[in-house]
Structure formats: C-alpha cells, structure tokens
Amino acid sequence: MVSILKKAIMAVTGLGWFVYVVLHLAGNLLLFKGPETYNAYSEFLVSNPLIIPAELGLLVFLVAHLASAWRVTRENSAARPQPYLERVLSRRGGTTSASGWFSTFASRTMWYGGVLLLFFLILHVWMFKYGDRSGAHGLWGLVVRSFKNPWISAIYIAAMLPLGFHLSHGFASALQTLGLLKPRWYPGVRRLSQVVGWVLAAGFILLPLWALLFAEV
Amino acid sequence: MDFILKVWRQNGPDAPGRLVTYEATNIPPEASFLEMLDIVNAGLEARGEDPIAFEHDCREGICGSCGMMINGRPHGPGRGITTCQLYMRQFKDGQTIVVEPWRAKAFPVIKDLVVDRSAFDRIIAAGGYISINTGSAPEANSILVPKEDADLAMDAAACIGCGACVAACKNASAMLFVAAKVAHLALLPQGKPERRRRVLAMVAAMDAEGFGNCTNEGECEAECPKNISIAHIARLNREYLRAKFFSR
C-alpha cells in the first residue's frame, strides 16, 4: 500500500483511539464516586445498543493501526540496512528545525511503546471486561479489589508510561500526517500533544493509586 | 590546522567497507571541507594510494552533489549549508572527523563516499515537471501568480536534491524531497493542470525505490541545506489525499 495511505490510516485510527481513551478516562474517573455511580455508568454502557458497533469499530481501528504500524516499521528499518557509525540528532547538534520538530524518545519508540500498550490492553480487557463482577459492589468492587494488589497497581501505573510517550508524539504527528496543521501552530501543537499525553497518563494513574491507598472495600 | 580523519572506504557497491584513518595536516582554516579532502587526496596520490572518492560539482552550494555524513550530521555541523560550504575553521584543531556516505537502501554506495542518487531522478521523471511546449518565453504577466504563492513555491523549489533529508531521516524517507518537488509545482498555476497525476505518480515512484515512511520527526528539515520546511510534507499529504479521494 502507498506510504502516505498507510500513514493516513495510522493517523485516523490513532486519533479515533485517542478520542476513545479520553472518554474512557472521563468515565472511569467515576470510580472515585463509589460503587453505585460507577456500576450504573457501566450498566448504562453495556446495555446500550451502540456498544457492540462501537467495540467492533475500536477493534477494526486497532487492527488497522497495528497492521499499518507493522508494515511501516518493517519498511523503515529495511530502508537503511547499514546504520551510521556516528549519528548526531538535531537537538544534540543544536540545530533543530525551524518548524520546531525534532526526534524525541517518544517519536523513536512508537512501535515498542505501541506493542507494550497492546499487551496491556489484552490484560486490561481480560481482567475487567471479562472479569468476575459477581462479588460485593459489582464491577467497582472488582476494580478496587484488583488495585488493592500492589503488583496489579504497579503494572497499571507502569503501563501508562508508554501511553504518555505514545500520545506525546502520536497526537501531533497524526494531525501533521493528515495535513491539518498550519506551520505556525507546530510548536503549540507539539506542546499540546505532550500535555495531552501526560495528563491522560496521569489521570489513569490516579485510579490504581487511589484504590491502593484510599479506597475502602 | 591538523585533523584526524576517519573516512569510509569501500571499493565498490558490493565490496565490504571500513573506516580508514588519515591525518590531514597543514589545512588552512579557510579551506572548505571539500578542499581539505582535495589536500588529503593530493597526499594520497603522491604516495601512490587510491584517493578518497567523493562527489562534487559546483562547490557553491547549488548543485547538490557533495553530500556526505560528517561527524554524524548530513553536510556536517551548521545550518543551511552543503558540504562545500562547510569551512574547516568550524572544527577544532586536532579534532577527529568521521566521514561516511549517505546510508539508505535506495542510495547504494558506488565507491567510498559516493552514492547513487538516481532514485531521485526516477522520481522526478515520474512527474516532477510540467508538460508545455517550449519555445520563446511567454509574456510575463499573462499568468498572474500571487506573491504569497510565488514565495512558497520558491521556498520549495530551493531543493537541490542532495539527499540530506534521506540521510538524516531515521527511516531513510524521501518525503521532504518529494514534498518539495510536488509543492513547488502544485503551488504555481503552470503546475496545476497536472497536479493530481503528478502527486500520485511521484509518490508511487518514491515507494518503488525503497525509501522509508515519514514519521514526522523533522530531522530532515534540520539538516536540509536549503531549510525546506516539513510544512511541505503536510502539503504533499494533502495533495495526495485530495488526488486520491476527492473528485475534481
């Protein structure tokens, strides 16, 4: 498939997941409100007739994002079979582009971070979507009791680091790939991308942290 | 000035290569990097050794021939210059300088620091031109071009096809080069009749050469001797998606 189309698919599906992740955080902050509100929200979602199409849509977006990423990453490493013996990136060389873009840890690790997020996603869906909600306080109880296990909390907190990095490059990069940015917006959108990525990561980290330290089951 | 050079030596496309250390002595600070290599080569030839092969032509920063990786940077340290515009006074006396060819599957090494950049020519041949009958120049004001468009097109047209963008990109992507050529012509009225056909054909040719995909890092722009903006890559993407998905 044509390079620009692969990148456009990555951008559209990535932005789709970004919107979902924002909604997912907004909804799950209801964890703080206690079992009744949280379980009612969960019930509202699963009883909604749109839930199946939405989930299928997310799955299609995920598969398309992953397939494009796989192809792009393979092609990119094949495009330079012999690496440089010495390479100084623009930021270290002190001459970053006038546009304000430069290679970052986040931009160089999109594939690896994405794969980590995929493993986390599988674990996360298995634990909570298909977990046993029949105990006390239903889903809220399942989530809070799970996070009371410091190991599970640690995994959840650690998994948000790749999310922060992935979004801090991905958000701005997707908009640039789709050609939606004016050049004078570049520095602002790059900063926004980092803020958005790390605010979302921090928001999700609050959930296990609160459950571990403050919640009473 | 004296320098220790570590230069990539490779006899042919399929021959194994390695870094060879040379001493460059009594180099005037006002010598360009290419002139420094000339001095080193004169010494090698005097000793009956094979001189270091490197590509060069205009030596005034407009032909795009002299690209090489100098201390890990395309065209060496500094912004907006080609290798021939890099002067030895930029380096410290006694400094070690590592010189490598561009590294990309689409740019195979011919010898030492010379790579085959004809992949760029094939991309241009796919559509990087306008089809008009040549002849005497038309009346200048018969086609009006807004100043803003002319300026943007000129910024893109400054591309000299040196390949520093490919060399700088971690994915060896040629997007900045193709973007500059597509943008230059798409912005001008003379280029508009063929803009759809052009962008589709040039992107297909780019992909066929085995360049990587753009991941929006901007390292290409940082090393471009003509400071071509990655805003043109966004323009290329818009041109492509428009040609692909929207009717006339």
Structure description:
Chain A is mainly α. Chain A has one domain (3-79, 109-213). Chain A has 9 helices and no strands. Chain A has helices at 3-28, 35-46, 51-78, 90-93, 105-108, 110-129, 138-148, 150-177, 186-213. The radius of gyration of chain A is 20 Å and the shape is elongated. The N and C termini of chain A lie far apart (52 Å). The mean pLDDT of chain A is 96. Chain B is α+β, with helices and mostly antiparallel strands. Chain B has 2 domains: 3-110, Ubiquitin-like (UB roll), CATH 3.10.20.30; 118-245, Orthogonal Bundle (Fumarate Reductase Iron-sulfur Protein, Chain B, domain 2), CATH 1.10.1060.10. Chain B has helices spanning 33-46, 118-125, 147-157, 164-168, 175-186, 195-208, 219-223, 231-245; strands spanning 3-10, 17-24, 69-70, 73-74, 96-100, 109-111, 114-115. Chain B has a 5-stranded mixed β-sheet with strand order 2-1-5-3-4. The interface between A and B is large, with 48 and 52 residues.
